[in-house]
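ping. complex inputs:
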Amino acid sequence: MSQDSILSVDNLSVRFRTHEGIVHAVNGVSFDLAQGEVLGILGESGSGKSVTLRAIIGLLPREYASIGGRVRFGGREIQHLSNEELNAIRGARIAMIFQEPMVAFDPVFTVGDQIAETIVRHDGASWRDAMRRARDLLELVQIPSAKRRLAAYPHEMSGGMQQRAMIALALSCNPQLLLADEPTTALDVTVQIQIILLLRELQRELGMSVIFVTHDVGVATEISDRLAVMYAGRFVETGPAVDVIEQPRHPYTDGLLSSTVLSARQGHRLNAIPGAPPDLMALPDACSFAPRCRYAEEQCLSGVPALSPITRDHATRCLRVGEGRLEL
Amino acid sequence: MVTTTITDAVPGMTAVEQQPLLVVRDLRKHFAVKGGFLGRTQAVVQAVDNVTFDVMKGETLGIVGESGCGKSTTARVIMHLIEPDAGEVIFDGQAVGHSDGIGYRELYRNVQMVFQDSYSSLNPRLPIALSVAFGPMVHGMLRGAALERAASVLGQVGLDSANFANRYSHELSGGQRQRVNIARALALEPKLILLDEAVSSLDKSIEAQVLNLLFDLKREFDLTYIFISHDLNVVRYISDRVLVMYLGKVAEIGSVEAVYTNPQHPYTQALLSSMPSMDPRRRTEQAPLTGDPPNPINPPSGCRFRTRCPFAEDICAGTPPRLTSRPEHGISQQVACHMHDPSSGHSRAMATEAARP
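pong. complex structure:
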C-alpha cells in the first residue's frame, strides 16, 4: 500500500451461493486508490463492477455472499467489521450513490429531514444546525430554491433533481471516499452531462476520492483519472484514462472501443466482439476472454494471465500483449 | 432570399416523384390525466402534437429525443396500438383505417414492431419457434408451413433452429431474446419495421452484434426501418435521416449528415453537445442546458423549447414555430424555430439571414 492511498483493495473475491451453483462474481480484484483520485470501473452487466463496490462497503448479504481478500480504508482493515462498526464508516467517511435515487430515499420523509437525520446521526449536531447544513448542501448541488426544496418529498422532484438530492445526502458528512454506481445511467443525456460536471466539480472542491462504476465509455472518459476495465470479475486492463482510451492494451478493451458505433462508419458493419460473456458458475482456469478473442492461442488456455505492467501505470491481463508479442 | 415552407417534399430526398412508404400527417395524441372528484380530466399530456414526416422506401429514419418527448407514442400511434386523436397515417399510398384504405390486418402484415423489453414481448409459455410462427398462423398460414418459416427466420437472425426452436424465452440471454423478437417481426415478411429502443437494454458488445444483424437483414430483405432511440451515437450510425423530437413536437428533421454536423435547432445543438466526450483530453467543460425537460403535462406555450432556450424572445412564447426548410442551401433539413423563419419577427432571424453567405 502506497503512502497516500486512501483505499487499498487486495485480492478481493466475491462468491454467491445460489440453488444452481456458486457464482464467481469477483475473482481477485486489487487496486490502490489515491487521495483525490477518480477511478472509473468500466464493464458490461455481470462483469462484477457493482458487486466490487458493494463488497468494499459491506453491502452484500452475508448469508449468500462469501467475500475473500482484504480491504483497507484509511489504514484500517474493514472487511471483517461488524455491521455496527461499519455503520460508523458508511455514510460518514465512505458514501455511496446509486442509479436509482428513489432507492436511497425513504418516500415518506422529506428530503430535508433525511439529510438532516444523517448529519445528526453521524455528527451529533443539533436538528437546527443539521437543517441549516442540509440547505447548504442542496445549494452545493445546485438545486434551485434550496430552502423550499428541503420540505419536498422525493417523488415531487424530477429525475435529475432527485439525483442531485441523493448526491447532497451522500456528501452530508464530508466523506473521503464516494462510491458511485452508475449514477447517470437512468438520466437523459442533457441531464446526465449536468450531473457528471457537478460530480467533477464537487470532487475537485472537496478533494474526495471517487470510484465511479459505469458501462458507458463516454461517461467513464468524462469523469475518470484512471480506468479499470472489468471482465468476468477481473480487471483486465488498468491505466490512466488517456492511455486506456487512446491506446487500449487488452483485446477486450480494444473490442469494446471499436464495437461502439463511434469508430464505425455509417453504412459499414460494426467490428463486433463475437459470442457472449462466460458463465460465472463455470469459469475456466484460463483467460476468460479467450473464447471471444481473435488473437487467442494455445498458451491463453493454460491458467489465468496475471495483470502485468506495460508501462509504469498501465497494465494488461493479456499474455501476448504483456510479453510484447501483440500490438493492438 | 426565399424561404419556403414545404411539407410535401422530403428533406434529403432528391427523387421527389418517389412515393414515400409511410406518410405521417399532423398526427396528434393527447392523454387526459383524470383524478379527483368524479374522475374529471385534470390535465392533458400532449404526447404527440401535429407530427408530420415521411419515410421513404429502403431508408432508415431515426427518431431521437429525451424521455417524455413522444417518440415511443409516435410509434404506437403509427401502429394504431393507440388510436390517434387526429391526423393520418398513409402506408404505401393507402390511408390506414379508412374505408377505401388499408385495414389493420393488412397493415400489420406489412409493418412490424420490435420493443425494448425483449422478455415481456414474448409469451413465456410458448417455445420460441411457436412464438415466431404465431404471426403467420394468425394470417392464415398452416401450422406446418408457419413452423418451417419460423425455423428459417430463426436461422436468419443467427439462432440455429435445431438448438433454439424448442427453448423458452427465459432460457435465452437478452441478446438472443431480442433476436427472437426480430425473427418474429420478419416472419410476416414486412416492408417496414419499427424498432422502439430495440437495442437499448443490451450490453455494448451484444448491441454491436444486433446492429450488425439489422444492417444485414435490411440489405437482404430490402427493409425500411424506423429506429427509435435515445442513444444519439447509435442513431447516427444506423440512420439515413433523423427526426429530433422535443415534448411531442418535431424540432428538426434532416439527413444524418446535415443534422449531426450542422444542427440548426437550438435544442438539437444542445442535445448533441450534451453527449459525453470520447476524448479524455477534451472533456466537456460546460453543460449546454440547465435543469430537466419540462413535464409534457401543460407544456410551454408557443415554442416548447423556449423555457430552456438561450435565444427565446416574446415571439417564441406567442406562436409555435413552423417546420421550415431551406432547399436553396442544398441542406436537406427542416427546422421548427423562429430564428430560421425570417417572417417570424425574431431578432436573430434577420441576423442569421444577413450572416449567411
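The interface with chain A takes residues 66-67, 173, 175, 203-209, 211-212, 215-216, 230, 232-234, 236-238, 256, 270-271, 274-281, 283-293 of chain B (CB under 8 Å).
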